[in-house]
Amino acid sequence: MYSHPETNLKFYFNTLDRLNYDFNANFRHGNFISYIKYVKSDGKCGIINKPQYIQQGLKSKMDQTIHLGKVNVDLEFKEGEVIYLHEMANFSQKFTWEQFRTAVDTCGLYVNRKWTDTNNKYGVALLKCK
Questions:
Q1: What pTM did the predictor assign?
Q2: Residue 85: closest CA among 6, 10, 22
Q3: Three-state SS for 12?
């Protein structure tokens, strides 16, 4: 879903609609565009070295103020500022097979068998307890 703008925009705009409804807010769809960024980090996230992930959300097309009427709060957005629409910045984590093996090993599991595409970029693994 994260890489298809037509699909994720419906989901994201539904989030704005819910905020408008639940908080009597004034978000306007036309003031935001889809934001999708693939991040490759040189650092460490928990037990994973050099994590890769997708950041996704809505980017403000202009400076604007959104009013949340039910709680009487104004949210100031600068042009280009992003609303992330998931729990954390690295919601869609990407792993190399080495990173994946390290992660499952920490949980007392191992990769018994794996299936991948021809470029070894996507895969499914059968895990078993050690």
A1: 0.61
A2: 10
A3: helix
Decide: helix, strand or coil at residue 86.
coil
3-state secondary structure at position 29? helix
Higher pLDDT among residues 105 and 9, named by residue: 105
Residue whose C-alpha is closest to residue 55's, from 36, 70, 42, 69: 36
CA distance 102 to 58: 33
Helices (H), the chain: 5-23, 97-106
57 CB-contact burial (10 Å; exposed 0-12 / middle 13-18 / buried 19+): buried
Q: What is the CA radius of gyration of the chain?
A: 19
pLDDT 10s digits, 35-84: 888 877 777 666 677 777 777 889 999 999 999 999 999 999 999 999 98
Lookup: tokens for 75: 């949210």
